[in-house]
Design a protein that fits this description.
Layout: H1 3-15, H2 27-39, H3 49-62, H4 66-78, H5 83-91, H6 94-97, H7 99-115, H8 133-145, H9 148-152, H10 160-177, H11 184-198, H12 202-214, H13 219-233, H14 235-244, H15 246-249
Length: 250
């Protein structure tokens, strides 16, 4: 099949409809977009539709592109991603993009859930109480990253040298990475995508590529996820991600 036929096939798989031909005010642009994403990128590499759509909604949440996020949440559901997996992909963006942008993404997600007849709120996904946030987060964090962050910020003024690494441990790992609904391998892969889509976080991106490999992702899976994210985050951010992690991925 040529890429036009492949685009039609993939579009039906994801959205249950047909791609643009002459509809709308800018059909030419939509044909370029759809044939590239759904006729080429979606067929390159090993990731299945479920993982590709999780990558897509992660990038869209980071970039706060909410109309497209709603569409791709619906696509996630259409290809068998569970509401809990979708929720976790969005929730875990918070330590990286901040709470306001994550709240906006959650609102778009919830609108898509409501349209699909999914009852809200979903069941709680937390696994740690107030007293376990640090210990549970520390156990998970150190299994992948050791004490790197704590060691790096000992130079901070009194109070902050302890607080800043602790916030990462308790919030990033204790509150989010320990939650139910998504396995650790997928969480680490999507964290790589969050950092790549952000731009300017190459130091952290390199560390999380190493973490994603330790969590069981292959080099090809990581490259495939980054390549799939490219149409949504742009070519420069793909190249920045690949270049900063070249030694780990080659």
């Amino acid at each position: 099949m040529d890429r036009i036929e492949l685009c039609e096939e993939k579009f039906k798989e994801l959205f249950g409809g047909k791609p643009t031909t002459t509809e709308g005010n800018d059909p030419e642009f939509m044909r370029i977009l759809q044939r590239f994403i759904f006729g080429e990128v979606c067929y390159t590499g090993s990731l299945d539709n479920r993982m590709r759509e999780l990558v897509t909604i992660t990038v869209l949440a980071v970039n706060a592109t909410l109309p497209q996020l709603k569409s791709h949440v619906a696509a996630c559901l259409h290809v068998g991603v569970t509401p809990e997996e979708i929720r976790e992909a969005i929730y875990q963006c918070a330590p990286f993009i901040g709470f306001p942008k994550t709240l906006n993404a959650i609102a778009a997600m919830d609108e898509a859930f409501a349209a699909a007849g999914i009852s809200l709120p979903l069941k709680d996904g937390g696994t740690t109480g107030e007293e376990e946030r640090f210990s549970a987060g520390k156990k998970l964090q150190e299994s992948l990253y050791g004490t790197e962050i704590k060691d790096r910020y000992t130079w901070l003024p009194d109070g902050f040298a302890e607080a800043v690494p602790r916030w990462l441990t308790e919030l990033g790992f204790g509150d989010f990475m320990t939650r139910k609904g998504m396995d650790g391998k997928t969480r680490e892969l999507l964290t790589v995508i969050i950092l790549a889509a952000l731009g300017g976080a190459e130091v952290q991106l390199r560390s999380h590529v190493a973490g994603a490999l330790k969590a069981g992702n292959t080099k090809e899976e990581i490259v495939c996820a980054l390549a799939h994210a490219m149409p949504y985050m742009g070519i420069p951010r793909l190249f920045n991600a690949l270049n900063c992690a070249k030694e780990l991925l080659s």
